[in-house]
Design goal:
720 residues; alpha+beta; single chain
Length: 720
């Protein structure tokens, strides 16, 4: 009897499934992998949405806000969505539909800021009542200040401010498509992402006014009405007339506006606007059109008069300010400035007269972001890649002695870092190559003591996953390290040969490879690996986070050094026995589209199939700020423009090339693709072409799924 029972037990155990085998796991679809896909959200790493209430950490969810104990990680409910709408006197979520955007603007008061397109409220969750509500019916609060409770916004091209008492003030009268107020200018270059800038206490508002009446219209067309309509974009091309920007300052107390007396705005760029703590002075960086002469200038906020030029930086190539100055919270007479004048982006301490007091960080690595300040230890919190070029970690440097410390676990890549009001705590989100997301609370006083809130499980654990790896090779100069990522099929066999696709971007202000989850692999690479391809990605010179000389190696010759480095990657692939060099493809978008076609036409016997999305074809058709920074003007650099242009090389096309564009692309305008097609007609070469009606530079929503299936199918048809 015992033997029978034992046998039955063994049989039962055998019937219990073991860990799911690779063959039993699910296959990915683009609905799983692509951000426009129907199942994409379910395959993202687990996350938490966090905000600070002074020194208290709050998790903001859809239906509940929770107070988190920063020492233990324990959570307690602060209030629910039903609570909020009940206290607000709403039974149909009129005021709030979710709590994920809740903020706590007053460190010492139990007040939460909430809203939607219909209303924006401040609610006292201890008194359980609304204490303030905006008066902008049906208008999104574009820029609200918690101290003055004033809101700046644009409606029908005009700039308005509604003060904390609900009184509406119209700041402009001549706003139009050609005269733009309170919005981002200079086509979002130089770190610009908005057009209004409140003073520290919200008593004054600095804002942009952009006159683009002199800028040529690019003739975009909306094809969807019964009769297609003309919808032109103002698009200043390299070497052509650019817009003119001025900066106004509105004073709530006087209801008056003055403009900074910066001189003639023609062929000048104004960026990185900042305020003095006393609200009396406005600071901004000013560049000439060549972008090789950068000056930090201060202005009187009351009169608009120029006070002083505090700093000047010049270059034989270009200077690119990306960050406004930041005053020390404990010392109104000193500020931090970021510059890569020594070859790498670092922090410098200045006094308000413009005297440089000291360099706070130094080394052959890059400060990526200033997170905030610890007011207790009088130190700066920042992220950098000091440990390793493809990592980024949280650091602190004390103002007094320049002592630096790395905080937290020191692994992976920082995704976000949110400091508490005093900066003594930081909510840190990071990702490592084998850990999708980690969320920690860092005590910046106690040598970086860590409280772990989340170590997300692999959301792809039930799927067949490819093999991700990274490494480095030397650039053609024989000394510069270039980092790559390789994605192989899950059942990779080194004795087989695989079709291989080089994915490329290669341009400034971007990188493809870092130490985050899967080495920052794009989901499409997983889809291709699942279909039996190897995908290879290399960050060439010209890409970001490697220092000034690495970035500026491509100056006045875009595409040339980048191609050299990408071909160094191809030489590496040739040495891998499992790469089928007779089936080598290339794909990229935007600058990567330019690189894709450049490689296809300059090395027609190497690459057999290519898909280029939104490609720049000739830099003379690209916009002024970006194009002239890297290429100068067509008038000043005719050889560089001729060398990088793909028009004259259309005759070199041998393999299969598909070009894809958004029909209404306002970044790389359709003139690029259409001109190249014309050149191919004249040369007798045969590319394929596909346009997405109504789409701009990147496909939105579910159109992105269609796009990536189209890209994949082209390689399936012609490379595999």
């Amino acid at each position: 009897m015992m033997k029978i029972k034992s046998l039955l037990a063994i049989i039962a155990m055998m019937a219990i499934p073991a860990t799911m085998s690779s063959q039993d796991k699910k296959l990915f679809t683009l609905e799983d992998l692509n951000f426009g896909g129907t199942n994409y959200a379910n395959l993202r790493p687990q996350n938490m949405w966090l905000t600070w209430w002074g020194e208290k950490l709050i998790e903001t969810g859809v239906n509940e806000c929770k107070l988190i104990n920063t020492k233990t990680g324990k959570k307690t409910c602060l209030f629910t969505l039903d609570d909020i709408n009940s206290w607000a006197g709403s039974d149909d979520n009129t005021y709030v539909r979710h709590l994920m955007n809740a903020t706590f603007p007053y460190p010492d008061k139990p007040i939460v800021a909430l809203g939607n397109r219909k209303a924006f409220i401040l609610l006292d969750f201890e008194a359980k009542k609304i204490i303030w509500q905006d008066s902008i019916s049906g208008q999104t609060a574009n820029d609200w200040h918690p101290t003055s409770r004033a809101t700046a916004y644009v409606e029908n091209y005009q700039l308005y401010v509604v003060d904390g008492q609900g009184v509406k003030h119209q700041l402009s009268q001549d706003g139009s498509r050609e005269i733009v107020y309170g919005q981002s200018v200079h086509r979002n270059e130089f770190g610009i992402s908005k057009g209004t800038f409140w003073s520290p206490k919200g008593n004054r508002l600095a804002f942009y006014r952009m006159d683009q009446s002199m800028v040529t219209d690019y003739p975009q067309v909306d094809i969807f009405p019964r009769s297609a309509s003309y919808e032109p974009d103002k698009y200043p091309m390299a070497g052509m007339t650019s817009h003119q920007v001025t900066v106004g300052v509105y004073d709530l107390s006087t209801d008056k506006t003055v403009y900074l007396q910066a001189g003639d705005p023609t062929d000048r760029y104004f960026t990185n606007i900042a305020w003095s703590p006393d609200e009396k002075t406005v600071y901004m960086f000013e560049l000439n059109r060549k972008q090789n002469d950068c000056r930090l200038v201060s202005y009187d906020a009351v009169s608009g008069q120029k006070i002083a030029e505090l700093y000047r930086e010049t270059s034989d190539k270009y200077v690119e300010p990306q960050n406004p100055i930041q005053f020390l919270p404990w010392d109104d007479s000193k500020f931090i400035m970021q510059s890569q004048k020594d070859g790498y982006n670092h922090l410098y301490l200045f006094d308000k007269s413009g005297k440089e007091l000291k360099q706070l960080t130094r080394g052959e690595w890059v400060v990526m972001d200033v997170v905030g300040f610890n007011t207790k230890t009088k130190s700066v919190l920042y992220t950098s890649n000091e440990h390793y070029p493809i990592n980024s970690n949280l650091w602190t440097v004390t103002i007094k002695d320049g002592h630096r410390r790395q905080l937290g676990k020191g692994i992976g890549v920082v995704q976000s870092a949110q400091p508490s009001a005093s900066g003594q705590l930081v909510a840190l989100k990071l990702s490592a190559f084998n850990r999708p997301r980690i969320i920690d609370v860092i005590n910046t006083n106690a040598w970086g003591k860590v409280t772990e809130l989340l170590d997300a499980q692999d959301p792809w654990k039930d799927y067949q996953q490819p093999i991700f790896s990274y490494g480095s090779i030397k650039a053609v100069d024989g000394k510069t390290d270039l980092y790559y990522r390789m994605v192989k099929p899950h059942d990779f066999d080194p004795n087989k040969k695989y079709p291989t696709v080089v994915y490329v971007y290669g341009g400034p202000h971007a990188h493809n490879v870092d130490a985050s989850w899967h080495y920052a692999s794009r989901s499409w690479e997983t889809y291709m690996a699942q279909k039996g391809y190897i995908v290879f990605i290399l960050d060439n010179r010209g890409s970001e986070n490697r220092g000034r000389d690495f970035e500026q190696a491509t100056w006045h010759q875009l595409g040339q050094v980048e191609m050299q480095d990408q071909m160094t990657g191809v030489e590496y692939l040739k040495k891998q026995s499992y790469v089928d060099m007779n089936r080598l493809g290339v794909h990229g978008w935007s600058f990567g589209g330019f690189m894709t076609i450049s490689l296809m036409l300059n090395y027609p016997d190497v690459f057999k199939v290519a898909v280029a999305g939104g490609p720049v074809i000739d830099w003379k058709w690209y916009e002024v700020m970006y194009g002239e920074r890297y290429m100068g003007t067509p008038q000043d650099n005719p050889e560089g423009y001729a060398k990088s242009s793909l028009i004259s090389k259309a005759k070199n096309l041998k393999g299969k090339l598909q070009i894809i564009t958004g029909y209404n692309d306002n970044t790389v305008v359709p003139q690029h693709c259409l001109s190249f097609l014309d050149a191919c007609v004249k040369a007798g070469t045969q590319p394929d072409f596909f346009a997405y009606p109504g789409e701009e530079h990147n496909m939105r929503g579910h159109a992105s799924v269609h796009l990536h299936e189209r890209i994949t199918q082209y390689f399936e048809d012609y490379l595999k």
